[in-house]
Design a protein that fits this description.
Length: about 130
């Protein structure tokens, strides 16, 4: 599954990178599925962002998977690139030492935050 990562750069900014979450083939009741390797998350939470919200520049408070449940979320990285995600889309937020700005576009946004464990290495996520 291809997703976008928001990662910190060495100069304290952030940038987007493509990343592939590995999926394994499994069967459940005769139905072929593709599943990622699991991990235990320390603190899953739901978040509502009001319409028009603009966080200004900040670093991520945790390395996490962000799932857009409804609305449109825009993220601008420190290098000036902006991307938008809508309902059903996923990105990896990892720029705890960088900075980005987050905006709710065209209405409120509902999110699901799934933090990675502190010792989880995304680049070593394997099937």
């Amino acid at each position: 599954m291809n997703v976008i990562r928001n990662v910190a750069t060495q100069d304290g900014e952030s940038q987007f990178m493509e990343f592939t979450i590995p999926l394994m083939r499994r069967e459940l009741s005769g139905i072929p599925l593709r599943l990622s390797p699991g991990f235990v998350s320390p603190n899953v939470s739901f978040v509502e962002v009001p319409e028009g919200a603009d966080t200004g520049w900040h670093g991520a408070t945790a390395r996490r998977i962000v799932v857009i449940l409804s609305g449109v979320l825009e993220v601008e990285t420190g290098d000036g690139e902006s991307r938008q995600w809508g309902a059903g889309e996923v990105f990896l937020e990892e720029d705890v030492e960088g900075r980005h700005a987050t905006r709710a576009v065209g209405g409120p946004v509902r999110l699901l935050f799934v933090p990675f464990p502190s010792d989880f290495v995304v680049d070593q996520w394997s099937a």
